Amino acid sequence: MPFMKRNSIRFSLLTQRYLMAGAIVLTALTFSGCSQKKSASTADPSAPLPEVQVTHVRQGTVQQTVQLNATAVFRRQHVLKSPVTGYVVKSFAEPGQMVRKGDPVFVIETKESRALGNSLDSLNRKLGLSGRMTIRASVSGYVAAISHQTGDFVPEGEPLATINDRNSMVFILNIPVEWPSIIRRGESLPVQLPDGRKLSGVVTETLPSVDQAAQTRQVIIRVDKAGVVPEGLIAKVSLVQQEKANTQILPKAAVLANETENHFWVMKMHGKETAVKVPVTTGIQTADSVEILAPQFQPSDEILTTGNYGVPDTLNVKVIR
Q1: CATH class of the structural domain 77-165
Q2: Which Gene3D superfamilies does the record cross-reference, listed alphabetically (predicted)?
Q3: Tens of pLDDT along 130-151?
């Protein structure tokens, strides 16, 4: 009996110790929770709100463009040929030189005149003959190639030089065949040169052939007042792939997307200090604008353009006007 009494006393003491320990733990947890709740409730009001800027949806026209290369070429080349058999006495032109129609390019002495020498000088003076012939440029343009120099013997019909007709200069644009209606005859297109000049071009024709390897067709663009444009120069031409008028447009900074860019949204102000996440459906995108197909926003709706990246679905903000 004394043994059972001692065990009962021990059990009672242990129970009291466990109860006291449990009470201490519960008290600590309760105090900690209250402390955190108190700190949270006091931290939020005192913390400064993030400052953001907003914009409004505008109605307008948006275009999706593509930039392609266009190469400068001369479509007509004139070949100067020797009308007689003889020798090149003088050459006035050099490759790349600009010549005008009627400018002297070569002087040819006939082989008969050189063979007879001075024996026919008196006859030549009486008849007004010199035995020499001046070859003049048939068009205004650039000398592309010189085939003979001073002293060369040339037979009749021998090519002497090639002149690129300045008035035949055009830009050839290669367009993929899968874009059949992206360009039309008579359409005006700006042609951007590497030196910064912008020329006004007009589509004159489309060649009835396709490059078999690249599967592109050639479009001819004629420009006015081009000035000096060397053959082979590559310019830039912007074409409108798609255009939409009277549609909702937002700045690109206002539209956010996930990593795979298959889900888009904006942060829209709801009240004076709260921004909420609104999923959107996008259309045409340009370098600085995005078309919004849905939902339909009001002109007074405010959309965040700054402070909207990596934020929760609902955010308290301060709008900077």
Answers
A1: mainly beta
A2: 2.40.420.20, 2.40.50.100
A3: 678 899 999 999 899 999 999 9
